[in-house]
């Protein structure tokens, strides 16, 4: 079905890729990179939280401008923006907790409220939260704001489960993975609302990916596998690059990006 675009807005094709297994794999990998890369820049490169936040904030702003100025879905621009949002979302939570002493419980609540407020404003303005209709700049700004707050919320919730509640990295990974599986089953078997299922799963992939990243990178004494932030970040970044390159060549996730689905 063709989308009718308000002539007063800048015409563009849908800016979000089709939701396939590739989308979810890259999303989880990007989430894990966000967790490990933030730690790498902060600790290994000795930039500190403030320095890391400034550098990543400037990079994110630059690529957000590039992403918003494009009039269609471009895989490498879109996914690089997601990776940078993942890192910056992690830094938002880390700054509140480590620099300002805000508890993980409060941080989780804060970003939950902020994300809900974003969804409410988005729906009141556009009457939809569907990612299949991101074809105006206003909707794209709502979309990226929601993505940022899902990353920040997921980081806070993941840290709260693994560290605050002392569940450990591996159990937290299993818990959040199980919740994602439950959402998937509810959607496919019980025909749950597609938009609600997508956003719930999207939120849950953040603490799942963050717990995976910590489990792989943290020392064995802390409950991890001890692969380190460098090795984990490099492995996942290379995997993301390979998948994005594959999708760019095959164009397998561009069906919705062409605006075929309302």
From TrEMBL:
It comes from the Bacteria. Keywords: Membrane, Transmembrane, Transmembrane helix. Pfam families: DUF347. The chain crosses the membrane at residues 21-41, 47-66, 73-92, 104-125, 141-162, 168-190, 197-216, 228-249. The keyword Repressor does not apply. This is Uncharacterized membrane-anchored protein.
């Amino acid at each position: 079905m063709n989308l009718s675009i308000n002539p007063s807005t800048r015409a563009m094709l849908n800016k979000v890729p089709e939701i396939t297994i590739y989308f979810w794999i890259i999303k989880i990998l990007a989430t894990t990179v966000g967790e490990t890369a933030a730690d790498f820049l902060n600790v290994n490169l000795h930039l500190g939280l403030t320095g890391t936040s400034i550098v990543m904030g400037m990079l994110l702003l630059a690529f957000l401008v590039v992403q918003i100025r494009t009039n269609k879905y471009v895989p490498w621009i879109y996914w690089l923006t997601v990776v940078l949002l993942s890192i910056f979302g992690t830094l938002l939570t880390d700054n509140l907790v480590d620099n300002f002493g805000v508890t993980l419980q409060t941080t989780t609540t804060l970003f939950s409220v902020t994300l809900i407020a974003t969804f409410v404003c988005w729906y009141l303005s556009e009457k939809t939260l569907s990612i299949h209709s991101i074809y105006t700049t206003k909707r794209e700004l709502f979309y990226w704001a929601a993505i940022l707050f899902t990353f920040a919320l997921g980081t806070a919730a993941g840290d709260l489960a693994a560290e605050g509640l002392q569940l450990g990295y591996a159990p937290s990974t299993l818990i959040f993975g199980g919740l994602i599986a439950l959402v998937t089953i509810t959607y496919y078997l019980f025909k749950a609302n597609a938009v609600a299922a997508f956003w719930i799963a999207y939120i849950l992939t953040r603490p799942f990916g963050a717990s995976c990243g910590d489990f792989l990178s943290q020392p064995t004494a802390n409950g991890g596998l001890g692969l380190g932030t460098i090795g984990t970040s490099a492995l996942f970044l290379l995997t993301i690059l390979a998948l994005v390159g594959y999708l760019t060549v095959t164009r397998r996730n561009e069906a919705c990006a062409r605006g075929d689905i309302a």
